[in-house]
Design brief:
The structure is a single chain. By secondary structure, this protein is an alpha+beta fold. The protein has two domains: 7-134, Impact, N-terminal domain (Ribosomal Protein S5, domain 2, 2-Layer Sandwich); 138-201, ACT domain (Alpha-Beta Plaits). The chain contains five helices and eleven strands, in the order βββαββαβαββαββαβ. A five-stranded antiparallel sheet has the order 2-3-6-4-5, with helices on both faces. The chain has a four-stranded antiparallel sheet with strand order 9-10-8-11, with no helix packed on it. The protein has a two-stranded antiparallel sheet with strand order 1-7. A hairpin with a 3-residue loop joins β9 (163-168) and β10 (172-180). α2 (82-91) packs parallel to α3 (111-127). It is elongated. The protein starts with 6 loop residues before the first strand and ends with a strand.
């Protein structure tokens, strides 16, 4: 029997950590992100904070289907930076996370094993400075109903801790909502007694 997963883990706040090896300084900055635009803004912020760094290596993972991720060695030897950062993220079983590690070169080559260790260690240290939190996986619906049923609808949504994303209230009302996946069956049962309410999956 397939197990049902109703939640995921991510970081709630930014975090940062520093690691040094033979003169080189590595600074990892962790960001909670939701999309690629968040990534671009964070990268620009890091470049503004560290304009003289030699490398801006990164990895991110977004969403729940394990297909939206990216890593970059940013000029370091192939596989020595981005992949170790991504592996450190995946080892924590978290998503919606970006780690950028800036490097100030100290004059001594570390070799690929040394770089892998530095980028992995710095990332792990940064993730220890931010709180990992559990969040519910959300399911989205659209509701249509007569305005006379507004109070009854709102009472159900409040009881189920639903989030109203869009509210178009007229004689015939439209609501777009998000609800925890774990409460969808309860949501559907709660509306089974209320007639003439159209519910659509989004």
């Amino acid at each position: 029997m397939e197990s049902r997963i109703d939640f995921y883990f991510t970081i709630s706040t930014k975090g940062s950590a520093e690691f040094k090896d033979r003169g080189s300084k590595f600074i990892a900055l962790a960001y909670p992100i939701k999309n690629k635009e968040d990534f671009k803004l964070a990268m620009q912020e890091v470049k503004n904070l560290h304009p003289k760094a030699n490398h801006y290596c990164f990895a991110y993972k977004i969403g729940l289907d394990n297909t939206n991720f990216r890593s970059s060695d940013a000029g370091e030897p192939n596989g020595s930076a981005g992949k170790p950062i991504l592996n450190a993220i995946e080892s924590k079983n978290i998503t919606d996370v970006l780690i950028i590690v800036v490097r100030y070169f100290g004059g001594t080559l570390l070799g690929v094993p040394g770089l892998i260790n530095a980028y992995k260690t710095t990332t792990s240290l940064a993730l220890q400075t931010t709180q990992i939190v559990q969040k519910p996986i959300l399911q989205y619906f659209e509701l249509e109903y007569d305005y006379t049923q507004t109070n009854a609808v709102m009472q159900v949504l409040k009881k189920l801790d639903a989030t109203i994303i869009e509210n178009n209230t007229q004689l015939f009302c439209q609501l777009k909502i998000a609800i925890s996946k774990s409460r969808v069956a309860e949501f559907q049962y709660s509306f089974s007694d209320l007639h003439q309410i159209i519910i659509r999956d989004l």
